[in-house]
TrEMBL record:
Keyword vocabulary terms for this entry: Amidation, Cleavage on pair of basic residues, Disulfide bond, Hormone, Membrane, Signal, Transmembrane, Transmembrane helix
Xref: PROSITE patterns: NEUROHYPOPHYS_HORM (PS00264)
Family per record: Belongs to the vasopressin/oxytocin family.
UniProt keyword annotation of Phosphoprotein present: no
Organism expressing this protein natively: Gambusia affinis
Membrane-spanning intervals of the chain: 21-42
GO CC terms of this entry: extracellular space; secretory granule
Keyword Membrane listed: yes
Gene3D superfamilies: Neurohypophysial hormone domain (2.60.9.10)
Domain of life per record: Eukaryota
Name by which UniProt lists this protein: Oxytocin
Disulphide linkage map: C40-C45, C61-C105, C64-C78, C72-C95, C79-C85, C112-C125, C119-C137, C126-C131
Molecular function terms, GO-annotated: neurohypophyseal hormone activity
Length: 175
């Protein structure tokens, strides 16, 4: 038994007429395939593919705070020697830009805390969401041997520490 399907074609009742498939059904099918697909498109694909990001060396997180003396630890956390930790302040506002960069970063010194934090400022351990007081982040020496702090340091860090030391010394003489 044949039925009329398409304009001038006759097909049996068990066959399907491909010409009647509407453009909307094709569009829905393509949209479904696109939503399931997790391809790496040309515009946002890192060199080497998606997994190459995990192999890339970590870079320092963005600088922040007054005079860019701190580093971003989270979207609204900026910490550094001499400034402490600034959370939710105007100085830490641009730290949210770190979320839009393709390569991962690492801020701070040694690992601390239970949430994968890093030592941020003297006595503070910060992760991407918060900061807590942590004894393991206190400086190891009490200022008895100032020269050991400068070994292997960045020249700008050395200058900042010298200025910090000079400020404290002049403050003590005026008291």
């Amino acid at each position: 038994m044949a039925t009329a399907c398409c304009r001038h074609h006759r097909v049996s009742s068990g066959e399907w007429c491909a010409q009647e498939m509407s453009g909307a059904a094709v569009s829905v099918g393509l949209l479904f395939l696109l939503s399931v697909c997790s391809a790496c498109y040309i515009s946002n694909c890192p060199i080497g593919g998606k997994r190459s990001i995990m192999d890339a060396p970590l870079r320092k997180c963005m600088s922040c705070g007054p005079g860019d003396r701190g580093r971003c630890y989270g979207p609204s956390i900026c910490c550094g020697e001499g400034i402490g930790c600034l959370m939710g302040s105007p100085e830490s506002a641009h730290c949210v830009e770190e979320n839009y960069l393709l390569t991962p970063c690492q801020a701070g010194g040694r690992a601390c805390g239970s949430e994968g934090g890093r030592c941020a400022a003297a006595g503070f351990c910060c992760d991407a969401e918060s900061c807590t007081a942590d004894q393991s982040c206190l400086p190891e020496d009490n200022g008895d041997d100032q020269s050991s702090q400068f070994e292997g340091g960045d020249p700008t860090d050395i200058i900042l520490r010298l200025l910090h030391l000079a400020r404290h010394t002049s403050h003590r003489t005026h008291q």
